[in-house]
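batch_manifest entry 22 of 60
target: Multifunctional fusion protein
source organism: Gimesia chilikensis
requested by: lab member K.T.
priority: normal
notes from requester: please return C-alpha cells only, no post-processing; we will run our own comparison against the previous entry in this batch. if the run fails, retry once and flag.
--- input ---
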Amino acid sequence: MICVSIGRTRHKMMMMEHRSLSEKGAELVELRLDWIARTPDVTKLIKDRPTPVVITCRRPEDKGRWKGSEEQRQALLRTAIVSEVEYVDIEDDIADKIPRYGKTKRIISHHNFDETPDNLEEIHESLCKKDPDIVKLVTMANSPGDSIRMLKLVASAKVPTVGFCMGEYGVISRILCGKYGSPFTYATFSREREMAPGQLAFSEMTQIYRYDQIGPETPVYGVIGDPIAHSLSPLIHNIAFRHDKLDGVYLPFRVPKDRLEETLKEFEFLNVQGYSVTIPHKEGALKFAGAADQASKTMGVANTLYKDEKNVWQARNTDYDAALDSIRLGLDPEGKASDDPIDGKQVLLLGAGGVSRAIGAGIINAGGALTVTNRSRVRGEKLAQDLGCAHTTWENRGSGHYDILVNGTSVGMHPNVNETPFAQNFLLDDMLVFDTVYNPENTLLLKQARERGCKTVSGIEMFVRQAAAQYKLFTGKEAPLDVMRNTLRKGISAVAKL
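--- output ---
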C-alpha cells in the first residue's frame, strides 16, 4: 500500500486533492496539518473522507511548517484520535504524552534528516517500546549501503515497520520497502510538491514501478551510474515489463565511482538479477564480472551485467551492436544491401568515452575506415591508438571528407539544446549523420544535417536497441521494441516540459 502525502495551505484544496487521489486509486492518504495556513480544522478535513487517513503535524525541527505552539499541535493530534481517524503519526519524543485511545492506530515515528546512524537498530528498539501499532523510521541515505541497512532492519522487524531512506541514494528503499515487509511506503501528490528528499509521485510509484505488485519474489533489475536521476532507463524497462505482464522491477541505483565493487556486494541482499551500466562504471563493471564476451574484453568496457544460470555475473556491451544496427539503418533503410553498408566507408567519430569506444570498435570490425577526434587531444589519441585507427585534432575535425559522422559526445544534450559538436558548414550533402544523444531526439546537429540534405539517425534508435538487448539478457524474452521506443519519446517529451 502507498500512503500519499498532501500538503496544502487551504482546507478546500487539501480535501479536493484527497478526493482526486481516491479516484486515482489511492488507499491511504496523509493529511499534513502543518501545511495549512489557518488553524487546522480536523473535523472538517476528515468528514466524509474518501479514504483512510494518517493525520500528521510536523514541527520545524522535523522539517515541518507548524507555526503554533507545541500544546496546540499536540491538541490537534488528540482531537484526531478522539475523532477516530485511522492513523495518527506521533514523534517518538512525545509518544508518552499522547496515550492510546479508541480505534486509532499509533504510528510512532523517528526522522533523521542528516544521516542513517550506526545505531539504527537501537533507535528501532526504542520506538518499539512506545506502544506503536506501526513504527516509522526514516533517515537520510548518504551512501547506497544505507538503504540496504534500512531494508535489512525492515525485513527483521518484529513490530510492523515502515522504514526507508530519504535522498537520491534512498529512492530504492522507498520502492522496495514493501517487498521486505513494510506495511506501506510514502509518495507525494506530485513531483512539484515533494514533502521529503527523494520522494516519488503517486503516479510514478503506481504506473512506472507498480509498487503494489512488488512481492517477496519479484526479480530486481536496475541501472547503475552517477549521476542517475536523469536516466530514462527505469521508465522504458518498467513499462516493457508491464506490457509483457512480467513480474519485475527496474530501479535507478546511484553508485559513486569509487564504491562500485563495495556497493554491488552490498546489493547482493537485494538479489539483483541484472544491471544496465552507465557513466562512470563501464570499465568497473567489466572488472567486476566473472565472465565477459569478446566484444566487452576488446573494448575494455561493458554496459550490462546479468546473472547466468550458474549465478555468475556476465558482462556484455549492447552499445556495440545497437550502434552498428542504427548506422546500417541510416545507410540502408530497407535492408537490401547484400554486403555490410559500413564496409569501406570513411567515418569520423566525435568523442572518446565508453560509447565512442564501443562504436569505434564496431565500425572497424565492419570494415569502416575510422578517424577519431576529441576535445581532449590526449584522450582522442589514446582511443585511436587502442583501436588502431586514424586521429585528427578537434580543431581540424571539419577539414576531411567523410561518409559518416558519429557524435559520441554529450554536446547538444538537454538542457544544452542549442549546442552542436560539428558546425553546419562542416557537413557534406551526402553524409550520414548519427547522433548518439537521444534527449532531445532532434538535436541541433541533426536539424542542421537535414537542412544540408544529409541522411540522419537519432540516438533514440541506438538507446532503444541497446536497452532491448539488455531486456533479452535479463528476461530471456524479446523486448517490445515499439513499446520501448514510444515510451522513450514520451519520457523525453515530459522531461522537456520540466
